[in-house]
Structure formats: C-alpha cells, structure tokens
Amino acid sequence: MSAVGAAFDKAAGEGRAAVVGYLPAGFPTVAGSIEAALAMAGAGADIMEIGLPYSDPLIDGPVIQEAVHRALTGGVHVADVLRTVEAVAAAGVPVLIMTYWNPVDHYGVDAFARDLAAAGGSGLITPDLTPEEAGPWLDAAATHHLDPVFLVAPSSTTERIELITKVCGGFVYAASLMGITGARDTVSGQAAGLVARVRACTNLPVAVGLGVRNGDQAAQVASFADGVIVGSAFVQRLLDAPDLPAGIGAVRDLAADLAAGVRRPARPAGRTP
Q1: What per-residue string of b and e applies to 3-41 under the rule 16 or more CB within 10 Å gives b?
Q2: pLDDT tens column, 46-86
Q3: Which of 16, 56, 69, 125 has its CA at a distance of 20 to 30 angstroms from the CA of residue 272?
Q4: Catalytic site residue 49?
Q5: Are 197 and 164 spatial neighbours (Cβ–Cβ below 8 Å)?
Q6: Residue range 14-47, pLDDT digits in tens
Q7: Which one of the listed residues 35, 60, 80, 147 is annotated catalytic?
C-alpha cells in the first residue's frame, strides 16, 4: 500500500475523512511555501498536494492563478517543486504534486517520475491528462511506485468513471462541480451523488475537491466522502496576510479547523479501512 493509501486507511480507522491540503510551490517564496505546508501538516492535514506552477492553469480560479503568477515571477523551477516535496515528505506526510501535463512532458516523463520518487513523493494529480493519453505516465508511475491520480466530474458518465478509476492509484479526485477552483459559500449539491457513483466503480478512497473553505463545510463533505481537498482557502489566507508569519498562522488555523470538522460527522458510508 502506498503512503497515500495508508493515510486514507488511518483516517478511516479513526472514523473520519482525511484532510488533503494544497499549496503551490514557490508561493510566497520557496522557503515560505515549505514552511506553510509543514504548518498545515502539523495542524491536521493528512496529505499534502504541492502545485507545480504553470503559465496556463486551465482549471484554477483567480486565487490560485495569482499565487502561481507570483511564484513564476519569483523564478520557481521544477527543482524547487521537488525540493518542497522532499521537505514535506521528510516530515512524514504523504505528498503528491498537482500539475498540468506539459511541464512533465517537457521534463521527460520517466525522469520526472524518477526524480519525484527520489524526493519522497507519492504520486501525481494530473487534471488535464486523460486515461487514453496516459500510457507513458502510467508505465513510469508503476516503475517508480507512484500513485497516478485522475479526476472525475459531475458530467462524467458511468463508462467514463469506470475507465478513470481503473487507472487511478491512491485515491480518486472527485471535482464537486463544473468550473474552476475557488472557495465557495456552500458545498455543491452534486458532490454526494458523484461520490456514490464513483464508489460503485472502485474500492479506492474518493476525495472531494473544489469549493471547501472551512470546518463546517469539511464536516458536510466528510459525511459522504473519504477525503476533503482544500486549496484556494489556504492560498487566500497567505494572500491576505501582511507578512509570512501571519500567513503561516492563518493556514495553521485553517488546517486545525478542517481537521476538527472532519472529526464531527459519522464515518462516511461505503468504505472500511
């Protein structure tokens, strides 16, 4: 079992959903993003996603776009992303890279998988890579023991969900709505139904992303999903902070709020550790 799978099993054994936190590498600085990620993990994030900044972030909303722009302007490189992964993994937290496919293809698929594994990374989340085009990545992931995480959406047909879940590793990323990333006032009404449809096709954990901003919403999602993915809300706290120490405190507080939230509801139905 991968480190990501073990983290979901541990959460399930405690009768709760896992908290998955996201931050882009290099924002506000490389060192700052490492400090923030470690603070989130220390306050309750079970798994971390580290974003690889890219100039054309198709599904990202304005909050993450702004953070990624600042990271790129600051000169972040793939080596910095891998260094961030290494620091978080060394703290004992499973960590995946969230990335669009172009940077991986440009780097070299096997080389990227090799270097990610060497850094202690657990896998990749690839929002714009389809299973039909994923052969080289699936081969490299298998060779280097990495989890390939793909996304399903409310628009996904049963046949599509079956195809996607067959090639997933670690967990299935369920996008709760059609649209770009960003914290929202309410959880999408489509999320619970999507999780149920995914569970009919796989025994992998199902984590819901896009829209969660606080512990109350995390509790709601945790009542029907195996994991709660939060990104924009963390990034917004860093953007709003007057300085890095304040930002670190803000993301730590949010991680603690989310961790408390997923411990409030009953264990999600449909999966046992």
Answers
A1: bbbebbbebbeeebbbbbbbbbbbbbbbebbbbbbbbbb
A2: 999 999 999 876 777 789 999 999 999 999 999 999 999 99
A3: 125
A4: yes
A5: no
A6: 999 999 999 999 999 999 999 999 999 999 999 9
A7: 60
